[in-house]
Amino acid sequence: xxxxxxxxxxxxxxxxxxxxxxxxxxxxxxxxxxxxxxxxxxxxxxxxxxxxxxxxxxxxxxxxxxxxxxxxxxxxxxxxxxxxxxxxxxxxxxxxxxxxxxxxxxxxxxxxxxxxxxxxxxxxxxxxxxxxxxxxxxxxxxxxxxxxxxxxxxxxxxxxxxxxxxxxxxxxxxxxxxxxxxxxxxxxxxxxxxxxxxxxxxxxxxxxxxxxxxxxxxxxxxxxxxxxxxxxxxxxxxxxxxxxxxxxxxxxxxxxxxxxxxxxxxxxxxxxxxxxxxxxxxxxxx
Length: 286
Known about the structure:
The protein is α+β, with helices and mostly antiparallel strands and 286 residues long. It is built from 11 helices and 6 strands. It has 3 domains: 14-68, no CATH class; 84-119 and 229-286, no CATH class; 123-222.
């Protein structure tokens, strides 16, 4: 019995502490601890470890069963090989772009793209600039609030901001940014359509429910289908232009590799017609 016990455990765990194992696969305490520290789940560590072990075991046991029931599948090996090639290509291209493509997208390029592709940047819902205030019906100095929230004077805005520090339930100043009408309506007992209808008639509106007053000053309202402002579209445009730069850069890299391989004789054709077609295409490009 002692001999059997000494021969039973022959696997090296490289200093790690195994929590559970299935055949030759092991889950280690150090790996689970790192996952817990990285993800910060909304549960205590004991519960996390218990649930993770169960999920790990379920996956490993199912994988073992799959191996037994689909042995040496050429289709699976082909898929794995194809995925490995795609993964390596993607990783290499990302590193190549990161190392070689240093140029940044300029504000001028963003503005030019916006000017020539305005049809891409039409609003799918109304947006507005302004301010929003929610106070209790028992709040003090409501008469002054009704004056301040309608004003664009610096003193009145400052007074409203100071007042809101101690009296407002919600105070949002977005005169220099944008907010969707639907997100603003969600903070009040009113639908987006009702809010839009009110704002079409007056830039400053007030309404109430049983416990609160709501004040809105809309300095600028853009409706659905109107052109999205450049400052709002610029992030989207920059992402588009960066992706275009990456695509153009990688196309250039691929074309250079292809031309060098063709010129050096690295590529061997076993079909004469394919060779002639590619040679002709290269001549046209040059």
